[in-house]
């Protein structure tokens, strides 16, 4: 399959996901930047996803590049996202960060496990500070099972 076709297909899929999420998120209370409602983050995130997908569509049409598709990073990142979702549900926020960063490390052959562990530790600490302390969200940091 030609690389431009793959780029267009992936960008189109992301645009459809972004628009769909945007439409669904409009059903929630939006709130404001100072006092965010449950729909604020999904609306903003889906709008950004849609804009980035549209930029990729334009880029693919204007500047076609002949290159091979590198499956390793794509599969590692997809595994990281899926691993984060499952780990977050079963074990909590902190282990989920270690899983997503652990899988993401697999996308770059030269990246070591020591920097990945440090990155996961710092990210977990920052997430704990942001979500638990600053925003007061009741996300489980650690849990075991369902």
Structure description:
There is one protein chain. The protein has 146 residues and is an all-alpha fold. 70% of the residues lie in helices and 0% in strands. It contains five helices and no strands. Helix 1 packs antiparallel against helix 2, helix 3 runs antiparallel to helix 4 and helix 4 runs antiparallel to helix 5. The protein is flat and about 45 Å long. The protein starts with a helix and ends in a 12-residue tail after the last helix. The model has no long low-confidence stretch (mean pLDDT 84).
Task: Summarize the entry for a quick read.
The chain is built from 5 helices and no strands. It is an all-alpha fold and 146 residues long.
Low-confidence stretches: none
Structural class: mainly alpha
Number of helical regions: 5
Care to count the β-strands?
0
Question: Rg to the nearest angstrom?
Answer: 18 Å
- Fraction of residues in β-strands: under 5%
């Amino acid at each position: 399959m030609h690389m431009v076709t793959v780029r267009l297909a992936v960008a189109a899929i992301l645009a459809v996901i972004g628009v769909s999420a945007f439409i669904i998120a409009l059903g929630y209370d939006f709130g404001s930047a100072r006092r965010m409602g449950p729909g604020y983050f999904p609306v903003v995130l889906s709008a950004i996803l849609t804009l980035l997908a549209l930029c990729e569509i334009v880029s693919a049409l204007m500047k076609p590049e002949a290159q091979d598709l590198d499956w390793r990073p794509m599969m590692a990142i997809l595994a990281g996202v899926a691993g984060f979702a499952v780990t977050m549900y079963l074990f909590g926020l902190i282990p989920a960060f270690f899983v997503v960063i652990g899988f993401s490390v697999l996308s770059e052959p030269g990246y070591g496990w020591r920097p990945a562990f440090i990155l996961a530790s710092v990210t977990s600490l920052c997430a704990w500070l942001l979500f638990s302390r600053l925003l007061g969200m009741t996300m489980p940091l650690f849990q075991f099972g369902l």
